[in-house]
């Protein structure tokens, strides 16, 4: 009686040449354009979400004003710029420094948002340090195990 397992097939496609450290199928201008788009789109989207939330917290249940909108756009631009800068320079860093940079960016961002919610500076500092340390530990684990 024959088994029901699938017999491995052979592909008729020729193998694509891959560069050093690049899996097959991920080379060429099309892949490079996708990566470049992601390097810009992800920080912009993160910045817009962060800026919107910062403006929401700063408004304190009042009416939306131009000052709130400007504050949100300023926060969005700064956060998106820092995310873009970290994304562009992360390959030049060793995993420990890269993890510390991600932890610092996340901790400062969360601490700032926590301070906008009318909490004390000590509360915002403790929350920022805790979130930053957690992010640094998580990203160090990810970077260390994948390199």
UniProtKB/TrEMBL annotation:
Bias type Low complexity, positions: 12-27
Region of interest called Disordered, as start-end residue ranges on this chain: 1-32
TM spans (from-to): 40-58, 64-87, 99-117, 123-144
Keywords: Membrane, Transmembrane, Transmembrane helix
Transmembrane among keywords: yes
Name of the featured protein: Integral membrane protein
Organism of this sequence: Streptomyces albidochromogenes
């Amino acid at each position: 009686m024959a088994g029901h397992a699938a017999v491995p097939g052979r592909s008729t496609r020729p193998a694509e040449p891959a560069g050093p450290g690049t899996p097959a199928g991920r080379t060429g201008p099309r892949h490079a354009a996708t990566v470049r788009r992601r390097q810009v789109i992800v920080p912009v989207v993160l910045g817009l979400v962060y800026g919107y939330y910062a403006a929401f917290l700063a408004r304190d249940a009042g009416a939306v004003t131009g000052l709130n909108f400007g504050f949100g756009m300023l926060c969005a631009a700064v956060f998106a710029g820092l995310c873009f800068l970290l994304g562009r320079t992360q390959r030049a860093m060793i995993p420990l420094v890269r993890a510390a940079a991600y932890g610092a960016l996340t901790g400062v961002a969360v601490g700032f948002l926590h301070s906008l919610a009318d909490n004390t500076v000590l509360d915002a500092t403790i929350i920022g340090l805790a979130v930053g340390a957690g992010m640094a530990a998580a990203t160090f684990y990810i970077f260390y195990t994948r390199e």
